[in-house]
Amino acid sequence: MKDLLIDPFREEVLKEGIGSIKKIIEKYPRLKGEPAFDPELIKGNIERLRTNPEINTGDEFLDLCIKTGLAHIDATFQGDHPKYGIKNYAQNRHDGFPPVIISAVDALTLWGINERAKEIFKYYVLNFIKDDGTINYYGPSISEYGQLLNISFLLIERTGTDGWWKDSFIKLNKLAFYLYDLWEEAQKEDGLIVGGPEADEIELYKKTGKYFHNNAWVAKGFLRWAEICEKTGSLPEKIIFNFKKAGEKIKKDTINAIEEIWPTDEKNYWLPPRVEPVEKPKYLTETWDSSYTNYRYWPELLSSKILPFDMANRIVEARLNFGGQFCGMTRFMDRIDDWPLCDYLYGLWYLGRKNDFLISLYGHIYFHQAEGHLTAYEQVSFPPGKEIAPYCLPSQLVATRAGRLLNKK
Fold first, then answer.
1. 348/227 Cα distance (integer angstroms)
2. How far apart are CA 26 and CA 61, in angstroms?
3. Is there a contact between 156 and 113 (Cβ–Cβ < 8 Å)?
């Protein structure tokens, strides 16, 4: 199984037509496991939901998955205080993990639950961004700094500034300038920021490097921050111009670096995650580095949307032809790990690859969420699936976020 290159589920769906996806799903065993929270609690939270727009994708099961995700936000958070998940993921050390607040704010604002989004984001900014602009977490990636600036932009775009911006601006600005200082230091070499790629890699292995997903999200973050501050008049024009200039420069430098390191042969599916040398795998889940690249670094590179379409499509083709997925879900070593899947789904939608979007979204809700109560664990085994790593909120919110793209207007 570990060296399987092509997703047989995807092949069958494409052969029979995308309309056959649910029929084909029935041939595979569903995930079994215990609920993260009392199902009655989740049911009550669903009944109290008031969304705008109304949740109506045309698929009742997807609608239920979307509602279940929203219902898990308040079940997981402790008031306004974020939690990553349950069991060992309920430990306080995980509370500052940026994808928790990013996914929750994105999900809430996509469905018009705006006041709650403002409350929890303001709390996070004031309590988890330190006075020097760094994130109070044991292993934040550089990409997460850019993503926090991006979610700030989306919060303003979807909800306005009332109730959170005035109190949050100072610390967000310090975060932006912390990134800017890193970028200025990078100008002494090739313009790419050196930093850690992911919490476990940082904490356990002290890994740093010029990672492409990190630099892509710094580019996006700078451009978003410039736009926010221009709209709100929060910074002088010269400083806003400097952020725009930095954003465009690091975007260009990242794309150039990828072009230099990635052979043009279309059958060469391996794009290393960073400028520094990385062992080329025989298939995407062969090594630790290649597994991380498949499950998180490539999806974040795609969701930044800085890549030209031809380059972004090559990454998707690499995942599909080099052993990156099974039943639409993301492979990691000998298991499935979908908590960053929304980045991949956002990238697919941006590229207009709706069939692949649907295959991965439906694969997630049927095989990565437990039958009955729909709890989404962080990691699961191949079908017939079972929990390998506990429930976590970003995994639960994949359908909630991506499903908004399918909702009827």
1. 25
2. 14
3. no
